[in-house]
Amino acid sequence: MTQPQPADTETSLIEKAQNGDRNAFGELVRRHYQGVVLVVYRMCGDTGLAEDAAQEAFMRAWENIPSYRLKSPLRNWLYRIAVNAALDVLRRKPEETLEDKEARIVADQAAGPEAVLIEKEQVALLQQALKSLPEAARSVLILREYNGLSYQEIASVLEVPVGTVMSRLNYARNRLREILRGYTARTEGEYA
Amino acid sequence: MHEDMRTLLNAYLDGELHGMRQREMETHLVSCAACQNELKELGFVSELLRADPTPEFTPAERFVSQLTLSLPRRALHERPPKPGSLPWWLVPAGLLGAWFFLRTVFTLTDVVTAAKMTGLLGQAAGWLGNGQETIWFSALTSLSGGQAVGALPMLSILNNVSVFGGYLLNGFFWQALIVLLYWAWLFFWWLRRRPRLIKMRNAS
Question: Which pTM was predicted?
Answer without folding.
Answer: 0.60
